[in-house]
Amino acid sequence: MKLLKSLLFGLSVLAYCHPGFCNDFPDKEDKATEERMTGDSIRIIISPELNTLTMAWITEYSRLNPSAKFSLRNIQGDLLNRPEGIYFVSGEYAEAPGDVPALKINIGHQAIVPVFNAKNPMLAEISGQGISTHEFARLLSGKGKIGWSDVISGAQNEPVTPYFIDNPEIRTGISDFIKTDPAALNAVPVSKALDLITAIQNDPYAIGFCKLSDIRKENLNELVNDIKLLPIDKNGNGRIDHFEEIYGSPDDLSRGVWIGKYPRALSGNIYALSQTKPVDEKSLAFLTWIMTDGGKYLSSNGYSDLISIEKQANLVALLGIQGNGEVPAQSGGPFVSLSWLIILAIVVALGVIIAVITLILAGRRMATAKEVIPLTAALKENIMRGPMGLYYDRTHTWAFMEPEGMIRVGIDDFFQHVTGSITRVVMKGPGEFIRRGEKMLTIIRYGKQLNLYAPVTGTIRAQNTDLKKNSALINASPYADGWIYQIEPRNWSREVQFMFLGEKYREWLKDEFIRLRNFFETSVKSHSAVYDYAILQDGGELKDNVLADLEPEVWEEFQTKFIDPSR
């Protein structure tokens, strides 16, 4: 089995032959067109809105692989129910009636977006305040006209005219967003993106709902003329906060969708599916390329790329990786074993272990005990370290009074085992005053982030600047080299009464494990079955670093449902 060669050498796909390519083939030409398709061609059938994205993939892949050939056509009539070819479709077509496809994988995310006229006289107020879900519900589900002054503070009392592109996906997305019956939407339906764009361009007080790809200029990080993204005030506080500023450009919004800052109801998927599972080298190589290098073309066409765990699951589904780590032999060409990839992974893992050990041995000692955190495949209570003499807060931070009276604070071992390796931190500076329960630190793992809260009140006198260069010190040595701040306390004698010491911390930690398991049982399962193998080991144990590869939306839920209630 020579899979690697099929992925690299077999990336030969594109001196694309799509004779007579157009957005629609008339029914009478179907037979003639199919007769022109050769056995050497990769047959691609697309839903119309994916035309530009698919052509971007084909163009680049053909540049890399001049010998490849494609037969490309748009979905027409009941074409989706025919077994030949690979289909690139959006949600509305993916759910079309017919036989269950043998292959169906998510290849990208998309967003339904609210937009408004860039010449709206209240541009600054709208951009600064945004519109909340509740206010959108008033606009789109009420019987009468709602004015701008009803949803934007200080705005003119001009009526808002809402439009939306009338297809099942957008109608359902809007109704789920505002929690109303799709049939009860109080908005003007239009059939095409151009109609919606024209309506908003001609009315400075109008808003509309469409897909991001409908209003993005081809191959540019810009929207069509006089159209702007309408910010959503997700937390409903009457302003667009710093963490909600994702509406400046299509790329900003695409990233916001990826990291979970955009409403889930307005986020959708695009799929690759086939009525029969592809087994030929060329089709597998092309789909594999889309899962890897081809992902960068999603953003430039109004979509968002997948995260690593989604890509891994897709490759498992696509290539049929077995439990022994190999891919079954396919007909039509040589394949190579994946064992070298396993060896490479082991080498990388050993390198990480050596690096962690080096950091631990090289670090300076502190008054608190230095702990070497063991690596393990399962997240169990008995691997957690909690040195005696430290006070532990419910927010999974610790505090220790040093001889000179300063309080050194950090993150406990439990928390770093949940998040996995931390890639960046955002810290407060020396001289800043902070109260117990206020945000003191943001930890980031490849764009996904969590906020942690201060266990004590006081003035920050020093920060651990080593964390700015190597944030993973928190993982390697949470009670020593990974400390966060030195704080001059204000209410130490009172606040320490709310913390745990010694065995009380160990007892409390048992309850936290139960709470953690309950979180994943109720929250993660509702997101996707793709997480099953990432979360639970044999026997039902939670996986170490359980959050590490999960979606940004799960991190956001973990913040609101697990961390924030502990304040």
What does this structure look like?
The chain has 567 residues and is of the alpha+beta class. Among the domains are: 3-102 and 275-319, D-Maltodextrin-Binding Protein, domain 2, CATH 3.40.190; 109-267, 3-Layer(aba) Sandwich (D-Maltodextrin-Binding Protein, domain 2), CATH 3.40.190.10. It has 21 helices and 22 strands. The strands form four sheets. Strands 1, 2, 3, 4, 6, 7, 8, 9, 11 and 12 form a ten-stranded mixed β-sheet that branches. Helix 11 (281-291) packs antiparallel against helix 13. It starts with a helix and ends with a helix.
Number of strands: 22
The quaternary state of the protein chains shown equals single chain
**How much helicity do the residues have?**
25-40%
Distance, first to last CA: 54 Å
Note the total helix count: 21
CATH first level of the domain at 109-267: which class? Alpha Beta
For the record, the CATH architecture of the domain at 109-267 stands as 3-Layer(aba) Sandwich
Characterize the overall form.
globular
Beta-strand content? 15-25%
Round the mean pLDDT to the nearest integer and report it: 77
Structural class: alpha+beta
Radius of gyration: 27 Å
The CATH H-level superfamily of the domain at 109-267 is Periplasmic binding protein-like II
Model regions low in confidence, pLDDT < 50 over at least 5 residues: 1-38, 321-341, 362-376, 528-539
Largest sheet: 10 strands, mixed
Q: Would you give the CATH topology of the domain at 109-267?
A: D-Maltodextrin-Binding Protein, domain 2
